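Troubleshooting entry. The earlier prediction with iron/sulfur cluster gave an output that would not parse, so I re-checked the input for stray whitespace and re-submitted. Clean input:
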Amino acid sequence: MIRELTVLSGKGGTGKTSITAALGSFAKNAIFTDCDVDAADLHLLFNPDILETHAFEGGTKAEIDPDACIGCGICQDACRFDAIKRTDHGWFEIDSLHCEGCRLCERLCPESAIFSIRSMNNQWFVSDTRFGPLVHARMGPGEENSGKLVTTVREKAREIARSKNYNIIINDGPPGIGCPVIASLAGIHKILLVAESSESGYHDLLRIIELISKYDVDIFGIINKFDVNAGISERIVSILQSNNIKITGKIPFDKKFVEAMVQGKTISEYAPGSAIVKVIRNTWEMISS
Ligand code: SF4
Ligand code: SF4
């Protein structure tokens, strides 16, 4: 049976991707996904060779036909997202970064000068890495449907796992508690929460625990930079324990973590004898047993 683990953190910058990559260096017969499709960065440590590139359909965006537009301004007045601008020449154009694709302007335009196009500004990839296959993606700026893209990435990983007999899929999850996170949790068996010892890290942890407590899966927790703020780390331990989340270890602050990332290596490659690696190896043993 193929097992699936999603690594989550509730917010960015907790060391989640570094920890996911280091787990990958211990895993055998694993396949990986980067579900943080809005700001993917696992590839920085995995240095993938891209084997396949696929376009992913995003949401719709409005466009104005300048030859048909008479410059009445009805569309600009109607757009709640302030996505329609008058140009220096007095005509109108759409700011695609702000357009939400609601199509209201298209319905109101008296000249039928507005039409919608589906964005193809997103891609997903299948790659080879030194740790196993990686399925990852890149979303264009201002694009939507990141939850659907996460689902696409995960479906492809499952397909590869089934056809090539990989026994675990490790998902580097997105930050926050929105749609992409929910998409990264469907059908998984285990969650690893990466908590950072800071006030904001603590509050984000509370939010993500509230979300994942609805899932009937094994949940583990690891605390990064635990020695930076002992008081907050104690509160994190307490909240993890009170939610029956198994604590796999506490990682001390160490600039080697950043140095490894700068060199494009996992911490287990960069500093194999470090205390961090000991904690992550223990985490992997607990999760994979
Ligand atoms: S509503 Fe139509 S015609 Fe009027 S400014 Fe907008 S695009 Fe041009
Ligand atoms: S589709 Fe909606 S959001 Fe986009 S420009 Fe038209 S009214 Fe504004």
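This one parsed fine. The radius of gyration is 22 Å.
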